[in-house]
């Protein structure tokens, strides 16, 4: 596809007007302020009229639980532990692998609609989830959820063999669109032995870890009681866990000593501002993390604690709430919020050639309609993207050069069937509880 005479959000988060961007073989092959020569232009296929449009990198959701679309609107107005124990865990115990498949299909449709091409997903039924992602033409880092209470070797848990098979059969599938991560749910749902064993597996490979970390005050307090005063961050560091690439979701209740550790090890922090507020968990100290150079990315979390996959909403919150919380209107800039949702999110997934509009990069792109009233006037459209724009402005989403959403249509997903399946499956599960 050749995007013709379109405005472009470049790698420095500046707007370049009247650009031509050519996509070929899944990558960006041409960027220029003049059209390519006619013989070159012909190699890009369709020409897309960029009038009134903004082309920018697609978004990367750094922390999700895709099948929890089935729980949307079900577990409401509860603090985290009651939300988990009274609502989520009983519901999830009734979910089948096919339930997880259809929940993921619907999540893919919703994310593609809002410009997201890739997500880091922590849940069960990984093969079915991966199948849904590949069918949708999207990308995902996937890990099989692990809950470990018994102090025994990881090899004695059935998930160990399951993970070996997933890495063998799915890691790198779809020309790298599927990546398998290892998972340690959290300090309170794991053991020291299991953590050390998983670390031994991941170390020295191209695999990564995805964890929940210091999400609530209760989690941190009880961890200190169990581990001689160590916070979850300090506990995991004592095991050597941060010696491998880690994406740590939440990191709400962290102190200066914890931040020193995250900074030293380059841990990716997946902030989930909507979920953290909805569950009353608090606010991660994102301005201080950014000041220290800790790589901050952005996640939606599951639909039982956010209710939508519109990552533009989370980006808006990321840029806004810390201004009020710190009484500093410069606490998080729109450019930092964009970086979290784009380039840093891609890097958190180990996708070095993604999250940026540059020649040779993967063609993960989205196009926004900028003709609506919320875009007018726009002396600097970057600010409109974050403060006035919305996922509903997305009119095209492209993953690896293939269109996965365009003007109300999903070429790769039967959205109406996915909706019907999810409604029926949620009703069935609720009737069984």
Automatic annotation (TrEMBL):
Keywords: Hydrolase. The keyword Phosphoprotein does not apply. It comes from the Bacteria. One of its GO terms (molecular function) is hydrolase activity, acting on carbon-nitrogen (but not peptide) bonds. It holds the Pfam family Amidohydro_1. InterPro entries: Amidohydro-rel, Metal-dep_hydrolase_composite, Metal_Hydrolase, MTA/SAH_deaminase. Residues 55-403 form the Amidohydrolase-related domain. This is Amidohydrolase family protein.
């Amino acid at each position: 596809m050749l995007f013709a005479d379109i405005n472009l959000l470049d790698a420095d988060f500046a707007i370049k007007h009247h650009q031509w961007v050519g996509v070929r073989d899944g990558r960006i092959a041409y960027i220029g302020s003049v059209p390519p020569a006619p013989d070159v232009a012909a190699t890009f296929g369709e020409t897309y009229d960029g009038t009134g449009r903004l082309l920018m990198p697609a978004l990367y959701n750094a922390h999700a639980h895709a099948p929890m679309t089935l729980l949307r609107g079900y577990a409401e107005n509860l603090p985290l532990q009651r939300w988990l124990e009274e609502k989520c865990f009983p519901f999830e115990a009734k979910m089948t692998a096919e339930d997880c498949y259809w929940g993921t299909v619907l999540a893919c449709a919703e994310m593609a609609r809002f410009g997201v091409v890739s997500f880091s997903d922590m849940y069960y039924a990984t093969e079915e989830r991966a199948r849904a992602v590949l069918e949708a033409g999207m990308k995902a880092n996937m890990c099989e959820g692990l809950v470990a209470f018994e102090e025994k070797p990881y090899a004695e848990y059935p998930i160990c063999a399951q993970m070996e098979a997933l890495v063998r059969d799915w890691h790198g599938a779809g020309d790298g669109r599927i990546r398998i991560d290892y998972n340690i749910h959290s300090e309170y749902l794991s053991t020291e032995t299991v953590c050390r064993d998983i670390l031994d597996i991941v170390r020295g490979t191209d695999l990564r870890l995805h964890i929940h970390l210091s999400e609530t005050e209760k989690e941190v307090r009880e961890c200190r009681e169990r581990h001689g005063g160590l916070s979850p961050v300090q506990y995991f560091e004592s095991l050597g866990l941060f010696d491998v690439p880690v994406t740590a979701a939440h990191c709400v209740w962290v102190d200066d000593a914890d931040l020193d550790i995250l900074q030293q090890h380059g841990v990716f922090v997946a902030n989930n501002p909507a979920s953290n507020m909805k569950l009353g968990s608090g606010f991660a100290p994102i301005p201080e993390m950014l000041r220290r150079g800790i790589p901050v990315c952005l996640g939606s979390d599951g639909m039982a604690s956010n209710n939508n996959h519109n990552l533009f909403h989370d980006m808006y919150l990321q840029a806004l709430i810390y201004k009020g919380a710190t009484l500093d209107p410069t606490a998080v800039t729109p450019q930092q919020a964009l970086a979290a949702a784009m380039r840093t999110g891609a890097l958190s997934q180990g996708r070095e050639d993604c999250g940026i509009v540059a020649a040779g990069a993967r063609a993960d792109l989205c196009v926004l309609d900028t003709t609506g009233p919320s875009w007018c006037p726009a002396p600097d459209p970057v600010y409109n993207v974050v403060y006035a724009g919305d996922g509903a402005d997305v009119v095209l989403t492209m993953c690896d050069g293939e269109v996965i959403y365009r003007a109300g249509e999903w070429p790769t997903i039967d959205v109406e069937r996915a909706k019907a399946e999810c409604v029926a499956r949620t009703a069935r599960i609720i009737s069984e509880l």
